[in-house]
Specification:
Elements: H1 2-23, E1 40-41, H2 44-62, E2 70-74, H3 83-87, E3 94-101, E4 104-111, E5 115-116, H4 117-135, H5 143-158, H6 162-169, H7 178-189, H8 191-199
Parallel strand pairs: 2-4
Antiparallel strand pairs: 1-5, 3-4
Bound molecules: zinc ion.
Zinc ion binds near residues 126, 130, 147 and 150.
């Protein structure tokens, strides 16, 4: 992490120096934007940039806003026992839980390092949906719809990629067929109505 920050700083400084030397105060600019589009997410700086992008997209596309602090760790989530295999058909890649943080609730998230950027972001989106369900206190009882909603959002983050097609074919991915029911609801009634419908469940 520190090395990336340092490197990023150096590149920015060198870029500015070249810019000044060659173009004065021209509009030409060397940026470090390549650090926000690396193929895999391997350190916390990249992870936090991706997290910020996912949060913006969730607000914009799904009216999902989180108020509690988010504590993100880039590591393999702790083992969860036999139930994990049912709910996580792809294995142990990401997890969300609510923890106490200086006397207030916070969202603890673990995401496995080394995932592709697209996969990382879709898993963050999935876990942030669970975070939102807890914060806004809905879908506590309907486990099938609760997981279905998270996969529905995850699917939209991946849509158009071969990854999305692959996920829909996974044996347990369509758990309780909820994701299909939600996609159908959205197709018929639109996204705002779908979100209202999902949030009406206790
Ligand atoms: Zn889930």
């Amino acid at each position: 992490m520190a090395v990336t920050q340092w490197l990023s700083q150096v590149i920015t400084e060198v870029g500015r120096a070249i810019e000044r030397a060659c173009f004065g105060q021209s509009h030409f600019r060397i940026t470090t934007s390549e650090f926000s589009s690396t193929p895999t997410i391997d350190n916390l700086v990249q992870a936090k940039m991706a997290l910020a992008e996912v949060r913006r997209q969730l607000t914009q596309d799904f009216s999902i806003d989180l108020r509690w602090p988010i504590l993100l760790e880039l590591k393999v989530p702790p083992a969860q026992g036999w139930k994990g295999a049912v709910y996580n058909p792809e294995g142990n890649m990401a997890r969300h839980t609510v923890v106490d943080f200086k006397g207030t609730p916070a969202h603890q998230m673990w995401i496995r390092p080394g995932l592709t950027r697209a996969r990382f972001k879709s898993l963050v989106a999935h876990e942030l949906v669970h975070a939102f369900q807890r914060e806004a206190n809905f879908l506590n009882e309907n486990l099938s719809l609760r997981e279905g909603m998270a996969r529905w959002v995850e699917f939209h983050f991946l849509k158009g990629s071969s990854e999305a097609e692959r996920l829909l074919k996974l044996k347990h991915y369509t758990f309780g067929r909820s994701i299909e029911a939600i996609l159908e609801y959205e197709f018929r009634s639109g996204r705002p109505a779908t979100l209202t419908w999902l949030r009406s469940h206790a």
